[in-house]
Amino acid sequence: MCNNRECATYLKKNKAYNSLMKQLRKKWESYGRIAGSITLKNTSEEERRAIGGIVGKTFSDETIKLTFKEFEQGLQKTRFAPIDMKLVLEHYFESSLYTNQEQRDRTQMAKREFFNRLEAYFGESAEKTSIVFSWIRALQCEKKYGYQILVKEYSKDSELAKTLARNVGKALVSLEAMDGEECFLAVFSARISGNPHYFDRGTTAAQLLTHAVCFWKNYDAPRLAYEWRECMQMVGLVSDNIASMVHGFGVRLETKDGLHPAYEAFNNKKEPCVITSENMKSIICAKAYNNKVYVVENEMVFLHLVENVKQYDVTILCTSGQLRVAAFQLLEAFISSGAVIYYSGDLDSEGMDIADRLWQKYGDAICLWRMDTEAYYKSISEESLSDRQLAKLEQFKNTILHHTAESVSKEKHPGYQENMLKDLLDDVLSALNI
Q1: N- to C-terminal Cα distance for the chain?
Q2: Buried-most residue among 17, 152, 168, 369 (CB within 10 A)?
Q3: What are phi and psi of 145, to 5 degrees?
């Protein structure tokens, strides 16, 4: 008669065997049999006495060594014999015991079944030509387009992962049917999941949907907020157009009915204004005074320039750091009308990265303004850059920024626009022949 359960119960009641039993389970999972040596460090006297009593040895050192076979043979000499070591371990841990390879096979089989069921689910509601099927198959075969996100969620909770995958799939089917028709993201999210914030940028659902849309439209995965907004807008999903804004001075915007009266009023009053992405929806053209647009990153710099040139006809924008959709929409409208953009930002990894991306996006339409090495040494601060920030300085493709980055890397201090207020203002006034 086998007494595997009784043996496991005895071992479990005595905490002196806990560490050893965990190691025995690991050995079984590795080898699938009674094999391998075990080393236990910093053992207590109680542990040494309990284990020694089974294997018939006296352990005096805190570090003890024994083989799996020794312990199994010791148990076979106790009142519990004969025992099956695998069954003892299963009773002890109250779970089935599988080798590492068996566990990997089971996991792979479960994943395949997960994707098969997902495909079958949409087979009941979507057309066979729907993009959702191509996406699901690409997830499985290429292990891309959101695969890692979904598998990570699956490992935490398979039911939640199923809901996530189904909702993103339903979103794809719905977007296909909309065929580019615009819908507010919050309204769409509520329609798909019941939660208006379900597909908000940064959520797991938004990340997975973004990957699915990029697969569908063969679009590069967005890294910045405005790129994500562009990605969503490409399939008709419009996020908060009011929160996306840019500050401007001397901005002349045209609608199909002529110059926008509200922004002309700001121009006539010589006051700065705010332009949102929502405002840009009706704009067909943007014109800059003298076909020049001066763009600064910092609000204080913007206000300083405006205060000192507000009696003149000049166009100035403030992006407040990373450009949002409204800023890109306005810049593109200016560029389309033939304007040249003079961009000036902080001379640190973040500011120079913004400038480099703008230059890569718009090419010769972007002129870097006070971002060369000479400007850096005029604007240098006493702050220190972190190793992470310094590492980012190696990535710039623009030649001017590349050379400036070499100086920043050497000095390890950022340069700020606030330290160049006079130079920036002089440049604007000089261009106005003042």
Answers
A1: 105
A2: 168
A3: 60, 35
The domain defined by 245-431 folds into Dna Topoisomerase Vi A Subunit; Chain: A, domain 2 (3.40.1360)
- Distance of alpha carbon 292 from the chain centroid: 36
Residue-level pLDDT at 243: 63
Between CA 74 and CA 78 the distance in angstroms is: 7
List Cα–Cα distances, 326 to 216, 225, 244, 333, in angstroms: 25, 12, 6, 11
pLDDT tens digits, 246-271 = 999 999 999 999 999 999 999 999 99
The half-sphere exposure of 78 on its side-chain side, counting CA atoms within 13 A, is 20
DSSP output for 93-123:
HTS----HHHHHHHHHHHHHHHHHHHHHHHH
Cβ count within 10 A of residue 19: 17
Query: Could you report the per-residue pLDDT of 84-123, keeping only the tens digit for each?
Result: 999 999 999 999 998 888 888 888 888 889 988 998 999 8
Q: Which residues pair with 287 in a beta bridge?
A: 252
- Report the pLDDT value the prediction gives residue 172, as an integer from 0 to 100: 94
HSE of 386, CA atoms in CB hemisphere, 13 A: 3
Enumerate the β-bridge partners of residue 296. 318, 344
pLDDT in tens, 1-45: 568 999 999 999 999 999 999 999 999 999 999 999 999 999 999
Q: What is the pLDDT of residue 199?
A: 94
What tokens does 168 get?
A: 């993103």
Q: Would you say 331 and 338 are in contact if contact means Cβ atoms under 8 Å apart?
A: no
The token pair that represents 257 in the structure block: 């009915």
Strands ordered across the beta sheet of 273-276:
273-276, 245-249, 315-318, 292-296, 340-344, 366-368
Main-chain dihedrals φ then ψ at residue 261, nearest 5 degrees: -65, -35
Going from N- to C-terminal start, the domains of the chain cover: 4-97, 107-238, 245-431
Low-confidence ranges of the chain (pLDDT < 70): 1-2, 240-243
Token code pair at residue 92: 């002890």
Cis before 82 (ω within 30) = yes
Q: Which residues contact 173 (CB under 8 A, 6 or more apart)?
A: 122, 125, 126, 130, 132
The predicted pLDDT at position 2 comes to 64
Q: Where is 296: in which H helix or E strand?
A: strand 292-296
pTM: 0.59
Q: Which helix (H) or strand (E) holds 334?
A: helix 325-336
